[in-house]
Design goal:
Blueprint (H helix, E strand, L loop, with lengths): L2 H20 L6 H8 L3 H15 L4 E6 L2 E6 L4 H7 L9 H13 L4 H8 L5 H10 L2 E6 L7 E5 L1 H6 L14 H5 L3
Antiparallel strand pairs: 1-2, 3-4
């Protein structure tokens, strides 16, 4: 790569950084390519340069399901929480269990969730998940009553810092756990 090409890519990486700083939401690769008139190869090269430049600082380039965003390194979370204390939202165990069933087993129905959890599912828990934008109804199961099929959304992935569902931690081997003394 010539010095001129490298300088051009460095300028593109700076433009990407500016857009990510200015944006309230993650920016998709498609949006970045469109706004900066880039090819896929140019975008990838510029993102690599941006990440290399950011590695020396406190920000990281993070890709989520909704696109790219700049994020403060985890090493500084205690400092931020001390200086800017915020009431951290507590998610109930029932909500997390319900969300886990949906994330790992989707598409699922309310009945499927109740069967896995072994308890009746509160409408309030589903409402909270819908209100957060973490789940959606997408289609209906072809059975009696045609129950709605529940799926997670890109907002769910963003909230948990994931790009894809395959980044979820693996489920534990329950047989091995049950065999423990």
């Amino acid at each position: 790569m010539t010095d001129g090409q490298l300088q051009h890519l460095e300028n593109i990486s700076k433009h990407i950084e500016v857009l990510l700083h200015a944006s309230e939401a993650p920016l998709t690769a498609q949006a970045l390519k469109k706004h900066l008139s880039l090819s896929t190869k140019e975008l990838q090269q510029a993102l690599t340069l941006l990440q290399q430049r950011l590695d020396a600082g406190v920000l990281h380039l993070h890709e989520t399901a909704s696109g790219y965003r700049l994020q403060i390194a985890d090493d500084y979370s205690r400092l931020i929480q001390r200086i800017f204390p915020q009431r951290q939202e507590r998610l109930s165990q029932a909500l997390l269990e319900t969300l886990s069933v949906i994330a790992y087993k989707q598409p699922v129905t309310r009945g499927d969730i109740e069967q896995v959890r072994g308890v009746t599912l509160s409408s309030n828990i589903l409402r909270q998940l819908f209100d957060k934008g973490w789940i959606i109804e997408k289609g209906y199961k072809d059975t009696l009553g045609r129950p709605a099929l529940l799926h997670t959304t890109p907002q769910f992935l963003d909230a948990f810092g994931l790009s894809h569902l395959d980044e979820l931690p693996p489920l534990p081997n329950m047989d091995a756990i049950r065999a423990l003394p």
